[in-house]
Amino acid sequence: MTTTEAVSSENGSARPRPTGIYDGAVTEPQTPITDRARDYLNLDSLFTAEELAQRDKVRAFVDARIRPNIAQWYEDAHFPVEIAREFGDLGLLGMHLKGYGCPGRSSVEYGLTALELEAGDSGLRTFVSVQGSLAMSAIHKHGSEEQKQQWLPGMATGELIGCFGLTEPTAGSDPAGMVTHAVRDGSDWVLNGAKRWIGLASVAQVAIIWATTEDGVRGFVVPTDTPGFTATPIEPKLSMRASIQCDITLTDVRLPADAMLPNVVGLKGPFACLNEARYGIIWGAMGAARDSYETALRYMLDRKQFDTPLAGFQLSQRRLTDMVLEIQKGILVALQTGRLKDAGTLHPQQISFGKLNNVREAIAICREARAMLGGNGITLDYSPLRHANNLESVRTYEGTDEVHTLIMGQAITGLPAYR
């Protein structure tokens, strides 16, 4: 029998919780995971000491701050807003950007950070992605010097939270179909429209909103306390429960002329930011996969059936082997993508390779790990089903499987097949 302990929820009720599991609440000895099982090909040897130090710093934070709390946050559909300042203190917000208080770390260091954060939970990694790769990146890439000075330092510390409004209720995979529009009224701009599935919008102080104008698609920096701006959390959700996604309505939102991002026109503006976010997903998905695999492996080593550890059965070893193969390959894909990015030679079509492959394989690993846990796998005492549910969102946002398949198909054949 598995021993249990009582864990109290916020409403005072208690539920039994297995001990000795990989969620930060370990109270019984576990069979250790060997170096071979953790890193079969010694991929750590491919990273620099500085890269490994960054990874280990974030891993320690996840172990101390996220693992002990994530089951309750997920169950309560709670995003801990205070963690933004903690991420800022660690230098994780806009960490791949330079200047304006941003850490200026490498793409590989950012990728390893994303991997470790998503080993904790996709929702927490998504916050770092929305803040740094989308909202901050838009200002950093396309904003004026005044906009950068006004917003980026506070966003880098987590004092200010940003969101990124591109997707609409009727325009997801085809952002060219957006209906949100901005028109001139004297020297001002007036925005009207709607956005959907916008991360962090209800807790953000600033929103980057993309809208059509008579000159093409333009981005606008919108303080969220501007009259006419409304953000409503989307509830209930079966995925990303420890994160916030919102509907935004824009009703005669009046902005000064200098609210527009001056340095880009057209969809290449938001796409440049999306590629930053997609890059982080390549790494993050492998974090969810690794955590699910290690959870299943520990369970297989510790639990006995027919007087034999589950890990000693042939079918268990086949499943674990398949997981190791895909995780190690996925990290190699992420690393090569990161090295290309740091060298300035990465093409957007190559990002699609990693996003499509790694998220698809990660979901399969998380589902298989859940199955290996039997009935226990459907509880929040174990991470794989939570990871699998979260990855359904990750698989959808920043380009669906179908979109990335067609991006790759066009790159391979030279023929677009979107219509």
Keywords:
single chain, 419 residues, alpha+beta, Butyryl-Coa Dehydrogenase, subunit A, domain 1, Butyryl-CoA Dehydrogenase, subunit A, domain 2, Butyryl-CoA Dehydrogenase, subunit A, domain 3, 4-stranded antiparallel sheet, 3-stranded mixed sheet, 13 strands, disordered N terminus, flavoprotein, AcylCo_DH/oxidase_C
Tally the structural domains. 3
Order of helices and strands: EEHHHHEEHHHEEEEEEEHEEHHHH
Top-tier CATH class of the largest domain: Mainly Alpha
- What's the total count of β strands? 13
CATH topology annotation of the largest domain = Butyryl-CoA Dehydrogenase, subunit A, domain 3
In short:
The protein is an alpha+beta fold and 419 residues long. It has helices at 35-38, 49-66, 70-75, 83-90, 107-120, 122-142, 145-157, 268-302, 314-343, 348-372, 384-396, 401-413, and strands at 4-8, 14-18, 98-99, 102-103, 162-165, 181-185, 188-199, 206-213, 216-223, 229-233, 245-255, 304-305, 308-309. The chain has a 4-stranded antiparallel beta sheet, with helices on one face. The protein has a 3-stranded mixed beta sheet with strand order 5-8-9. Strands 1-2 form a two-stranded antiparallel ribbon.
